[in-house]
């Protein structure tokens, strides 16, 4: 049939040049055409099509032909588009050849075994014996725990435990179903109300795990063709979420508001012409996990309103920590929550529970209940965990100081300031380390001193710049990096030293370099300030740290010495008892 | 208790304390077994091929009616949208640009929700309270306005065929609960940190040991969410030069995980091992697109038991193919772990396949163990590497103590080290219950998908109007079921999905059969042709009277192949 059409269309094109014979040609086409149409009538359902074509043909035969041609073109297009990519590329093989190729094929192992240079990473994961909290047992020894993200130390609170236990005694442990299928309990609804109220949002939604929240919320709203302008220092969860959403990405330099404004101004003419308008977001973190910086929220809000962007804010680390009552960066700066279109956070940190959440306007939350895959395709949070988080919010908000600030949050903030100031002043006299995080971060980052790193010839950044420069992630994983490994190892030695000499557990930035899509900062020592730890204990840590750095680094004064550490790395023995 | 005046509220109320005696409450969460006759061992006869599950087809008229129904719904939806935008612009405020901001989502995206789902919204997300065991307590509610409900504080205690509770561990009293409570005392409520930082306790290590031993692997990693387990797994094992071959009906979490890893994906027809083999052969021969360099490795990703179809993967054949072509095999046992096999050890146990032949066994604790979370089990070297490069280990919260308490204790019950005998009973009850209900429904004339031993029983409804009808009628008869339709299933095969539990008694299932029988007659659901079994006389559509079904079903459901009498 397609042959017919193509020949007829070519005839029509010729007719335009031969005007005098126009009538003649038209008659022939029409005659042939009708013959084919009649045979169509024999097919089931053909009569209807026939009638349509005949009636339209009466008015305008050329139109019918044109429509038919279009139809065939569309059909052809759909059929070929499916196979196009394969067809042109496929090599033809006989079954025998395929057999041979299958026999010859030697796959790589499923996972490369840990190399001698990587094993220490596993051996250096601490094992806590028994209760986690501000004071824990490690290697049969009581130690102060400054590596826990339960900043307010609610994991040790009796009332929180009581909330967990009474709920378990009523509902069991698991929720046994996704939220949309009998997995939503009264305690979940209460928690959603509590979170919305606590954070001054309209509504909220719960997720079963904190890490999946960003990866599910962002793709629910950002699709191909949508745009987001992103801080180039965002955490791993957001990086992955952006990649999965396939939206267009513009990066601005980490926390650099002038650069953000520059970019927004630059793309404004294009955006102004866009019809229909696509969704546009500015994506950033409240308290940056990678750098310990606090976002410049007032400026961002000013810019987002000026250029009409929505704001996505990851408050995973800041909620429960910043602001007088722990409501995060929003309270820290005294701006209304309304300004933030989407806020996400974790309940596994300051709320001593598990899971993640998202807060914002009603239509945004309701949309997630049906379109956000980690919500739809996963079991609800265990009911007891919901109750625990509700109780934690109560602990934070019901016990207030005279000035209206939360007792536990302000205690924590004092400890953060105490440790931060001490460490800043100590770092001034140390050749080895400097404080890299901001004054409000409950995780104090200590980086190796810039000058010292230069002496050792260490790079400023690790990882791949491809994502930043092209907006598309590199197709390849980052290679194992000797320097990154050694630098991390040096910090581990500091951690081990501190644990052995002052019975305090601290940590370091643990990132999987292989997976990180953005350039990675040099490894840092991290001190997670905890409300259950006294200032005396913090002082003890502060005193030992310069000694520890000195002990570990005093002989590492050249790149050569640095590299020679590889033999020590290979011999690193498990530092913690395993069970 | 004085009868309080009922106040209607728009908020979901808090559950009133239940002051019935503990024995009564226990019985409502886990029914007592009345006789040992109601037990069965879930196991596939070794060497015998897996019978291809037959998906029975309804008469053409049903398909036609289904299409027309959707057509009408869609047309009316569009008409209402068209006029609505003129007359009730407020309701469409979320769908149009406002002050230079794009709407939150596109009208097209939400059409299905606004115009179809909303009509049967009351059948979804019924809020509950208490342990979703043998019975589930759903808050009564009435529709109020467009999207809201009013609650009067009472609840409807329904037989629970909706929760994932295969072995009946959704209990608020008993050894497992005690163990979980003990873990809260001894370890707290939160894991406090990612595993790699300071979130590893001796309890985590113990739990991983227990699960690795249970599934028969050298080592295991536990994760705080089943979805997250899959969603982040593939980044550790696959890259852009890896090919992942995935069953077309794999769970969203697997598909998301593969997408996240950047690996190439090819999809094979659901459970079609011929198609799988053909695909693998061609892919090995063709290699990577454009360059034609050989693939670094090929990973086959399947599920043990498919949660929407009730089908099992054909593990014996897949394992053969995988060995023949040197591929790696990942099996998601979310629904099969605990629920299948004589020891509850999942799909390998069921088919008597050595777990060593599957490279990565994944499963969740959500479905059979009354807990939450997931695991990856594999060879020691794999797991050790993953302790350093598995995303959830480093970036996400670790498993909280109470959940581990539930996992460890329920696994101990299954293995018989805690409350000896109870585990066996649970395993054999789920096996019996699954077969009993499935065969009963088949005999009555319903079209039921899936394998004989599968505890997931999809009953096909087809017409969109029948979905809310079934859900509401059964709800009024105190039976809670889940209805699923597009997009979770193909548009035309809307279904009610029954999840059988060991907590249900044979008498409960009889009640379910009776009520299904009534509903089936009333709204014309019995259109099976008999090709999938259940016929009294071979070749005739099965339409047994309910009395006959109940009289014969205990014996019949223990016959090796359900519903074939020869
Ligand atoms: C096959 C499969 N994998 C993974 C999951 C996710 O598990 P969870 O609900 O524990 O997040 C599910 C649950 O629905 C599933 O069916």
Task: Provide an overview of this structure.
The complex is a heterodimer of chains A (579) and B (566). Chain A is built from 23 helices and 16 strands. Chain A is globular. Chain A has two domains: 193 residues, Aspartate Aminotransferase, domain 1, CATH 3.90.1150; 241 residues, 3-Layer(aba) Sandwich (Aspartate Aminotransferase, domain 2). The longest helix of chain A has 29 residues. A seven-stranded mixed β-sheet of chain A has the order 3-9-8-7-6-4-5, sandwiched between helices. Chain A has a four-stranded antiparallel β-sheet with strand order 10-11-16-14. Chain A is α/β, with parallel strands linked by helices and 579 residues long. Chain B is globular. Chain B folds into two domains: 289 residues, Alpha-Beta Complex (Aspartate Aminotransferase, domain 1); 241 residues, Aspartate Aminotransferase, domain 2. In chain B, the strands form three sheets. In chain B, strands 4-10-9-8-7-5-6 form a seven-stranded mixed β-sheet, with helices on both faces. Chain B has a four-stranded mixed β-sheet with strand order 1-2-3-12, with helices on one face. Chain B is 38% helix and 14% strand. The mean pLDDT of chain B is 90. In chain B, helix 5 packs parallel to helix 13. Chain B contains 17 helices and 14 strands. Chain B has 566 residues and is an alpha/beta fold. Chains A and B meet through helix 5, helix 7, helix 8, helix 9 and helix 10 of A and helix 3, strand 1, strand 2, helix 4 and helix 5 of B.
Please indicate the percent range of residues of chain A in DSSP E strands (runs of 2 or more). 5-15%
The mean pLDDT of chain A is 87
Specify the CATH homologous superfamily of the largest domain in chain A: Type I PLP-dependent aspartate aminotransferase-like (Major domain)
CATH topology of the largest domain in chain B: Aspartate Aminotransferase, domain 1
Helix content of chain A: 40-55%
Number of helices of chain A: 23
Low-confidence segments of chain A, ≥5 residues, pLDDT <50?
Answer: 1-20
Proportion of residues in β-strands of chain B? 5-15%
Q: Using only CA atoms, what is the Rg of chain B?
A: 24 Å
- Strand runs of chain B, count: 14
Can you tell me the CATH architecture of the largest domain in chain A? 3-Layer(aba) Sandwich
What is the averaged pLDDT score of chain B? Answer: 90
The low-confidence runs of chain B, each spanning 5 or more residues with pLDDT under 50, are none
Helix percentage range of chain B: 25-40%
Strand order in the sheet with the most strands of chain A: 3-9-8-7-6-4-5
Number of domains of chain A: 2
Annotation, overall tally of beta strands of chain A: 16
Helix- and strand-based class of chain A? Answer: alpha/beta
* CATH superfamily heading of the largest domain in chain B: Aspartate Aminotransferase, domain 1
CATH class of the largest domain in chain A: Alpha Beta
